[in-house]
């Protein structure tokens, strides 16, 4: 909520008390934006004992020496944040692709890296991975403040801060400027959407897990409403780019249909938003939807590809049947994970491998 403004701070609490009652309101007030049915404590992973030995999960090597897992601090015009960066052991100053990973509520870089297994996969695929850290001083639940108007714009707030941090790490490690990506979970996923919209000239693609569309909330109360119920009162068309422009960011999005923290309807609206941003008024989009049944260690799921009139993929949506608010295919050692697949991290890397930023507005997409 508006912790920095005493009047708005009290106003938010008063509304919450009136609408939701003292116990629920106080919990969500001090936890930032966690819905009434979600715990303020970190959830355990959603994985049973059989999951660890699932024959369908590909074996992965252990992460290499910790000397490549570095703790750093960024200070820029928009603020300061600690972050951690993972650099593959094979790195030799050549330009490598880079992913900015934004954690969810009650998480930190170590927990998020463990739960997503992104460092292990990045070692194989030779990606640099950056994990900005949201402190409790910025949000009581360590959520990125995706819902505040000042953090939804290019010039200020957390979107500007993360973009500044991204550019500094790019410069430090000589990252490939055409292959910079952003991904996140829950509040981190919502902030990744903000970055995809406001910095389409920086991020070649975005991976969103259990996230929320852009511009659907402007305070903590409306954020909780969108998280609980979704929203259909969007005016994405007003933000549509002029005919012929290509200033958008391709998205790959994952959501569990049993998510009781962020309503799955948000994923549908996120992809609708993406199509509106990506396509000109003259375009004729197409969609290809496939369904996969449940298998050993893999949830049944729907995968939908959205393409423009040239056949170029502009978005990819995964709805995973039986998954709640957890990173699909994650490691049980991290919070908010489910080790049953599909493997969201691996699929995000596959999607990122197909998209390259060519200029400030154009992208190259391989088959």
UniProtKB/TrEMBL annotation:
Keywords: Hydrolase, Signal. SUPFAM superfamilies: alpha/beta-Hydrolases. The keyword Hydrolase applies. Pfam families: Esterase_PHB. Residues 41-63 are annotated as: Disordered. It comes from the Bacteria. GO terms for molecular function: hydrolase activity. GO terms for cellular component: extracellular region. PANTHER family: BLL1128 PROTEIN, UNNAMED PRODUCT-RELATED. NCBIfam families: esterase_phb. This is Esterase. It comes from Paraburkholderia hospita.
């Amino acid at each position: 909520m508006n912790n920095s403004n005493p009047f708005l701070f009290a106003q938010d609490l008063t509304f919450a008390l009136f609408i939701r009652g003292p116990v629920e309101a106080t919990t969500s007030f001090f936890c930032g934006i966690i819905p009434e049915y979600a715990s303020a404590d970190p959830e355990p992973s959603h994985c049973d004992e059989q999951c660890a030995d699932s024959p369908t999960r590909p074996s992965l090597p252990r992460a290499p020496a910790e000397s490549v897992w570095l703790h750093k601090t960024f200070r820029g015009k928009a603020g300061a944040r600690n972050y951690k960066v993972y650099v593959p052991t094979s790195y030799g100053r050549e330009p490598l692709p880079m992913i900015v990973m934004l954690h969810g509520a009650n998480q930190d870089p170590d927990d998020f890296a463990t739960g997503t297994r992104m460092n292990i996969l990045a070692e194989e695929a030779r990606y640099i991975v950056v994990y900005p850290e949201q402190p409790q001083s910025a949000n009581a639940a360590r959520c990125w403040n995706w819902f505040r108007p000042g953090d939804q714009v290019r010039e200020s707030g957390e979107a500007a801060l993360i973009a500044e941090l991204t550019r500094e790490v790019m410069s430090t490690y000589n990252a490939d400027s055409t292959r910079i990506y952003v991904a996140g979970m829950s509040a981190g996923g919502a902030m990744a959407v903000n970055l995809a919209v406001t910095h389409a000239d920086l991020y070649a693609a975005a991976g969103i897990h259990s996230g929320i569309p852009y511009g659907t909330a402007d305070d903590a109360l409306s954020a909780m409403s969108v998280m609980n119920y979704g929203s259909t009162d969007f005016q994405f068309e007003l933000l549509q780019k002029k005919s012929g422009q290509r200033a958008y960011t391709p998205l790959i999005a994952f959501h569990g249909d049993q998510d009781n923290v962020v309503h799955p309807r948000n994923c549908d609206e996120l992809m609708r938003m993406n199509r509106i941003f990506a396509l000109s008024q003259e375009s004729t989009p197409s969609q290809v939807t496939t369904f996969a049944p449940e298998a050993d260690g893999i949830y049944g799921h729907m995968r939908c590809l959205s393409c423009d009139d040239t056949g170029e993929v502009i978005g990819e949506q995964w709805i995973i049947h039986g998954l709640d608010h957890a990173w699909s295919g994650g490691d049980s050692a991290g919070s908010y994970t489910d080790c049953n697949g599909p493997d969201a991290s691996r699929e995000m890397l596959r999607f990122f491998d197909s998209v390259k930023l060519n200029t400030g507005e154009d992208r190259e997409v391989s088959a």
